[in-house]
Specification:
The protein is built from six helices and six strands. By secondary structure, the chain is α+β, with helices and mostly antiparallel strands. Strand 4 and strand 5 (58-69) form a beta hairpin. The longest helix is centred in the middle third of the chain and has 69 residues, at 135-203.
Length: 282
């Protein structure tokens, strides 16, 4: 569009007037031949209507604004106003409820541009293509959702109850192990106290009975406690790892290895169960 100055008396838009030096300002638009003429209003009254487009799996809906262009051979053009989303070709009641929720929300948001009468007409035209959910449809969706909720929450209850029982069993086992360890610790403390007392008496020159065999070793004491040579090697290697690397490197890797082992065990048991089930079905 080109802006030029013309003398008074020529047609011009009143809102774009400029009285400087006795001239007026007007906007001109070219026609098909390139000649410039004063621009005039070229849109008639606009109307809103729904538009539907089909894809292989979905039906897309939108609202378009149609207006008549006077200067371009009196043609009608459309402008996209709002998208209403998409829906399956064979929608379920749940799909239609979700679609109409989007439609109502979008029309409410466009209340400043589309009046109530036009919104009612749009709803009727959309309803002719995608029916609004009836009361029976809504009750059916509510019943289906209630059944799904009951099934899901029941499964979660069973899963958490099983976890709680497993943790209680682990706690009971841990408590027993703790009691056994505490008993062995008390026994070791008594022997350590007796050895310290015998050493003190020897330092004082007193007569002490016993203590004429081979000196006690940690390996012998560990084996007496039920540890194997492999357990002792593993404990020795762990003790050689610095504390910082033990906390930042070893523990995270042990946790990851435990998770991988759990997943591998679950998958192995699932495959065995599926194999037995297929054999029974054959």
């Amino acid at each position: 569009m080109r802006k030029i100055l013309i003398p008074n008396g020529w047609p011009a838009a009143p809102s774009l007037s400029n009285r400087a030096e006795g001239l007026q300002t007007a906007h001109f638009a070219p026609d098909c031949s390139g000649t410039f003429f004063p621009k005039r209003r070229n849109r008639a009254t606009t109307t809103c209507s729904p538009r539907f487009r089909t894809t292989p799996t979905l039906l897309q809906a939108s609202i378009v604004e149609s207006f008549r262009v006077v200067r371009v051979h009196d043609t009608v053009r459309q402008r996209h106003l709002a998208s209403l989303g998409s829906i399956a070709h064979d929608p379920s009641p749940h799909d239609r409820i979700a679609f109409w929720q989007r439609v109502n929300a979008k029309l409410n948001a466009l209340s400043n541009r589309i009046d109530a009468e036009t919104q009612a007409r749009l709803r009727g035209e959309i309803h002719a293509v995608i029916p609004m959910p009836s009361t029976d449809d809504q009750r059916e969706v509510q019943r289906t959702n209630a059944e799904a909720d009951a099934q899901i929450w029941s499964a979660l209850h069973d899963m958490n109850a099983a976890d709680a029982a497993g943790y209680r069993a682990m706690a009971s086992k841990a408590a027993k192990l703790a009691a056994d360890s505490e008993e062995r610790a008390n026994e070791a403390q008594q022997k350590a106290t007796a050895a310290s007392d015998r050493l003190a008496r020897l330092h004082r020159g007193e007569e002490v009975s016993g203590g004429l065999g081979k000196p006690a070793t940690f390996d012998a004491a560990a084996r007496a406690a039920g540890l194997t040579a492999a357990d002792l090697r593993r404990m020795s290697r762990i003790c050689e790892i610095p504390k910082h690397e033990f906390e930042t490197v070893l523990l995270p890797r042990l946790q990851q290895a435990s998770k991988r082992a759990d997943r591998a065990t679950i998958n192995a048991v699932w495959r065995e169960t599926a194999r037995r089930r297929s054999h029974r079905s054959e």
